Amino acid sequence: MTASSDAGTLTDSAGRAVSIPDAVNRVLAAGRPASVLVYALKPESLLGWTNAFRNREAAYIPAEYRDLPVTGRLTGSDGDALLERVQGLAPDLIVDFGSIGDRYVELATRTQARTGIPYILADSGLHRMAESTRLVSEALGVVERGHALALDIETTLSRLQSLPRSACPHVYLAEGATGLEEERRRGSYLELIELAGGCTVKGMPRRTGSGLAFAVEPDVIITRDRDFHESVWQDPLWADVPAVRDRRVHLSPSDPFNWMGHLPSVNRVMGLKWLAGLFHPEAWQGDLRAETARFYSLWYHVELTDAEIEALLERARRRPN
Questions:
Q1: Distance from the CA of 160 to the CA of which of 32, 72, 166, 277 falls in 20 to 30 A?
Q2: Does this model's pTM top 0.85?
Q3: Which long-range contacts link 149-157 to residues 24+ away (Cβ below 8 Å)?
Q4: What is the average pLDDT across 129-154?
């Protein structure tokens, strides 16, 4: 993050100089990843969520924030249609947190020009996430809070560097109810796996009669799909895959935001901790329950009970005897 000599101007992740009001108390998130970051940094400033919570997810958000209005997202196809509503919400600032591509730069510049509302872009890439957290915290006027959260990101990434890379487990990312679906954001999920010390199994397996053939047979399978996680144990197609035989198929915890980053925001930091413990339990030396409690307190403003932590983790590790 860089700031100009004018204290009221910040240079965002796209290199755009944006004038920031002296007080930022009403923030509109342009998309779901931004809503999570703004909530983590300054929840009282968030005007609303881009999507409503399901009941199970809402249980992990404090009551005063879970029922905020649904504002929609600017980064979808309905972005232009929302401009009038944006002005009606009267935010002090619009924040986007994600990819810094031409499409998003153009949207931010156009929206700012048409509404007069400052609009900053923050890069959500894992290696720029700490920098972006500090950037947004400065815009929101919560620099000390931003430093604490950025430090957690940096500490996590630093811990990951000590993991053994010569003996990494081969990991397959199973998408969809069959485990065989392509996913357009697959690359970002694979980055998460590799940062956490896994060797990703590239490409999709091919069917060979009654089974599957992989380029490299997976030692571990990670999935975000509950139906696949429930059915894979009895599916003859997967029966001879080493990860299934060894009961190493893991469902990513998903409440309130999926740890594997289907919503690619700061929730991925918890995903890194979880994956590192799965792949390298001796080298990581982390207590998952304690790490979960600390992360949810620090980032999500919620103090989890032992029962809530157990429910969150039990859904992820449930498997047949």
A1: 32
A2: yes
A3: 149/40, 149/41, 149/266, 149/298, 149/299, 152/269, 152/295, 152/298, 152/299, 153/129, 153/266, 153/269, 154/130, 156/269, 156/272, 156/273, 157/126, 157/127, 157/130, 157/195, 157/272
A4: 97
